[in-house]
Automatic annotation (TrEMBL):
Alphabetized UniProt keyword annotations: Cell membrane, Glycoprotein, Membrane, Transmembrane, Transmembrane helix
Name of the protein: Anoctamin
Localization annotation: Cell membrane; Membrane
Anoctamin transmembrane domain span: 257-835
Coiled-coil blocks: none
UniProt domain Anoctamin dimerisation: residue ranges: 43-254
Principal place of residence: membrane
Bilayer topology: Multi-pass membrane protein
Family (UniProt): Belongs to the anoctamin family.
Keyword Glycoprotein among UniProt keywords: yes
Length: 856
């Protein structure tokens, strides 16, 4: 069986005796940075974890807690500790080393998989040739050099069965820091055998200020070429071949990322890289569709009629609001009418269908990629490990009652249903309240649009015609409302983030996976409403319940008239809304993720300027720590972006291109941030992207529906096709006359007094007496037996809209299910390897057991 793994070659610095397993795990002799302290009381052990604290001002209470905590670490858990002062004599460091006995015991307890036999499977020649052709797209061979080993859960009683060459380097650093952190979260700081739930774990000591930080050490990093110190390490390799932007076109060294940061961070970058690769195909098709609109820009008959002074210049439109809005000529929308053709054309229909298929392919191929990663990174049986062994310390502390686990038959804490239900009720009510608060804010923005539009219209009415065509009241209101809505989104996101964490803590989830999935669901549900509600309003509600002149519908007690769409439809406004929110979100996210940590670290380094020769633990102490929710923001940012490019992509074919550019930058910025600006996080195992998988599936299904409705009801494509093939005048099917056909006629004398402009109650416009005005609808003209009732063309268009939705959804869903059926979630070669390795592990361990029995 073949697996990829990173291997470091640095014979000049130290002799490397690596043992690499089939899943990409390197075990090396310690890097030089871990051997800095020549006077260590334990010789030169690897520093597995560092705790920092400052001198106490509370009468020694914190010092006493530290003493009890450290005594228990030494006596109960057999960890080796060493104190050291920072060069400024204010900060103290506690360096922690886990000896072999501790690592072996907890590796056995946590069932950590390690190599026990080398695989003889060799790489095929075809694969080697393919790698040769793609050598420019891959990092150097020393970063992704494949190694082949079979692995099995570590058994301390059968340690001779495993490939142990050096006990100090057998467990690689990410595994060591994970074991030590597991101990730190469960170590008490009280005396005696009586359990005190409120005095257990490093998390409580960090929250009450007893310790200021806890982190595993980074490897060294040589940022200056002039440095003479040879310190090449995994971190240095990641910086040179991953974090630099000049590597943007190369594949990420995922095995090395997983080895250094752990599976959870590794799988995030694997998903982000895969998502970015798939965006390339969507971006290409989107650019082609936009190019089609650009190519046919000058041939658009509809916009030509709008801009023609003899056609659009002679069509007088009814006022768009009461009293403050005047009558206006249709050719004032010339610019927006020409612009909308770039996004609303025949190519957009094809792109909407394509994106429905693309999102299915993306999810199916990611399942296969994820299955391969689970095998290569020893995560196939991870669920059992999580459920049986990884109970959250907070759950153990807060749950007083115990019951027998049906699988392990051991006593474990549990939360009774009578306590769990009230907690879930309060949590659900809180989420509902904040969701309603978002809806209330959106209604407030709608009220702003309705109230301010009239003000803008009143101010602009006296401007020259050219200025009106560029800065129309509708465009001005749409842009300012989008900016206000984006500001509200940021404020609510900040507040709700803290609320979501609080209510999730109140639920007391049992395992880390349950905690993360619960928090993920809450955050996404809120942000889904927060980010997308305004787009849903513009796409599906604005302009749909307006009424008609003389019978307008009103909101807020009949004081504000519902918004109308421009004669060319609301699609251009949806494009504007989508562009502002999507671009603004990415800009703010990059500032939060990059600029703020950079400024914080710069300020910290500036304060300690003058203290030369600082050690690695001092350098890492100055970095910003990654919170336990650090990846939530990363995933949330990308999934919200995924929603933008799938739910509303029919209105903006260039959205995948913008997302592609952002993600290419995002991968390298995140890599740079993790490598240089953040403390090394504790390695955490994860077999997949968690609840985000289900969220992506829900968004994918919903995107098919939303894009079908956008094309049917928001776009003008269906009315144009109905006119082209059923209502066009003459023998030849052309779009000539469509504008006049799509606008109904109303007798101005029938308008109610409150619908007329207050400054021109008996209107005379452009030195011409006006008796009729036009509005956007399909109704019979005055004087007709069914005046102001819907025409047959309206019902034909409605039927065509519904038929389009049914046809598009069925096409996409049939293709979706067909693709899902034809593409198995687990590649056949991976499935065979998993079965073969399970057989081999069982057979090997049974043989070892028999040998031990015979020898005894």
């Amino acid at each position: 069986m073949e697996r990829r793994a990173g291997e470091m070659e640095n014979a000049t610095l130290i002799e490397m005796n690596s043992v690499v397993n089939s899943h990409g795990e390197d075990r090396e002799t310690p890097h030089p940075i871990h051997q800095e302290n020549k006077n260590s009381v334990y010789g030169e052990p690897r520093i597995d974890f560092v705790l920092s604290y400052v001198d106490d001002d509370d009468g020694g209470k914190k010092a006493e807690q530290r003493k009890l905590f450290e005594d228990n670490l030494r006596k109960k858990y057999n960890l080796q500790l060493e104190h050291e002062y920072k060069s400024d004599c204010k900060t103290h460091f506690l360096k922690i080393h886990a000896p072999w006995e501790v690592l072996a015991n907890y590796a056995d307890k946590l069932k950590i998989k390690v190599p026990f036999m080398k695989s003889e499977t060799k790489q095929g020649k075809g694969k080697e040739c393919l790698d040769c052709l793609k050598r420019h797209l891959y990092p150097p061979s020393e970063i992704i050099k494949p190694e082949r080993y079979y692995t099995a859960p570590f058994d301390n009683s059968k340690s001779d069965s495993f490939l142990i060459e050096d006990k100090e380097t057998f467990f690689h650093p990410s595994t060591r820091n994970r074991i030590v952190y597991y101990i730190l979260t469960r170590c008490p700081y009280y005396q005696g055998d009586q359990v005190n739930k409120n005095k257990t774990g490093i998390k409580r000591l960090l929250s009450n200020g007893t310790y200021t930080s806890a982190y595993p050490l980074h490897d060294c990093l040589c940022l200056k070429k002039a440095e003479q110190v040879l310190c090449e390490s995994d971190r240095d390799l990641l910086y040179k071949h991953w974090a630099r932007f000049r590597c943007f076109y190369k594949k990420q060294p995922l095995d090395l990322i997983r080895k250094y940061y752990g599976e959870k961070i590794g799988i995030y970058f694997a998903w982000l890289g895969f998502y970015t690769e798939m965006l390339f195909f969507a971006a290409v098709v989107g650019v082609i569709c936009f190019a089609y609109g650009l190519h046919t820009y000058d041939d658009n008959i509809t916009s030509k009629e709008v801009c023609d002074p003899d056609i659009g210049g002679k069509i007088v439109m009814c006022p768009l609001c009461d009293k403050m809005c005047s009558f206006w000529k249709l050719n004032l929308t010339c610019l927006s009418s020409r612009t909308i053709h770039l996004f609303d054309n025949a190519g957009t229909v094809f792109f909407a269908v394509f994106m429905g298929i693309w999102v299915t392919l993306f999810l199916e191929f990611w399942k296969r990629r994820q299955a391969r990663l689970k095998y290569e990174w020893d995560l196939v049986d991870f669920n059992e490990e999580e459920q049986l062994l990884q109970i959250r310390p907070e759950f153990e502390l807060k749950c007083t009652e115990k019951r027998k686990n049906p699988i392990t038959e051991e006593e474990e804490p549990y939360l009774p249903i009578k306590e769990k239900c009230p907690r879930l009720f309060v949590s659900g009510a809180t989420v509902l309240f904040w969701t309603c608060l978002v809806v209330a804010c959106i209604i407030g923005v709608i009220a702003y649009r309705l109230a301010v539009y009239a003000t803008f219209a009143g101010r602009i009415k006296n401007m020259i015609q050219l200025l009106e065509s560029v800065v129309s009241p509708q465009q001005t209101t749409a842009v300012t409302a989008s900016l206000i809505n984006f500001a509200i989104i940021l404020i609510l996101n900040f507040l709700y983030g803290h609320v979501a964490i609080w209510i999730t803590d109140m639920e007391i989830p049992k395992t880390h996976s349950e905690y993360e999935n619960s928090l993920t669901t809450k955050l996404f549900m809120f942000q889904f409403v927060n980010y997308y509600s305004s787009c849903f309003y513009v796409a599906f509600f604005k302009g749909k319940f307006v009424g008609y002149p003389g019978e307008y519908t009103y909101m807020f007690g009949g004081h504000l008239r519902n918004e109308e769409c421009a004669p060319e439809g609301c699609l251009i406004e949806l494009t504007t809304q989508l562009g502002i929110i999507m671009s603004g979100k990415q800009l703010v996210a990059n500032i939060q993720e990059i600029v703020l940590p950079l400024l914080k670290n710069w300020w910290t380094n500036r304060k300690r300027r003058g203290h030369s020769g600082s050690s690695q633990w001092e350098q890492d102490h100055a970095l910003k720590s990654l919170s336990q929710f650090g990846l939530f923001d990363e995933y949330l940012e990308m999934v919200i972006q995924f929603g933008f490019i799938t739910l509303f992509v029919a209105s903006f074919p260039l959205a995948p291109l913008l997302a592609l550019f952002n993600n290419i930058l995002e991968v390298r910025l995140d890599a740079w941030k993790f490598t240089t600006q953040l403390q090394r996080p504790v390695a955490i195992r994860a077999r997949n992207i968690g609840a985000w998988n289900e969220i992506l599936n829900v968004v994918a299904v919903l995107s098919v529906i939303t894009n079908a409705f956008i094309m049917a009801f928001t776009s003008e494509m269906i009315p144009r096709l109905v006119y082209l093939y059923a209502y066009h005048p003459g023998e030849e099917a052309t779009m000539a006359g469509y504008i006049s056909n799509s606008l109904s006629v109303y007798e101005i004398s029938d308008l109610r007094p409150n619908n007329l402009p207050h400054f021109d109650a008996n209107p005379t416009l452009f030195n011409t007496n006006i008796t009729k005005c036009r509005y956007r609808d399909y109704r019979y003209p005055p004087g007709h037996p069914q005046e102001y009732k819907h025409t047959m063309q309206f019902w034909h268009i409605l039927a065509a809209r519904l038929a389009f939705i049914i046809i598009m959804e069925h096409i996409v869903f049939v293709v979706k299910f067909l693709v899902a059926y034809l593409i198995p979630d687990v590649p056949s070669d991976v499935r065979d390897r998993i079965r073969f390795e399970q057989y081999l592990v069982q057979n090997r361990l049974v043989n070892e057991e028999l040998k031990m029995i015979k020898s005894s």
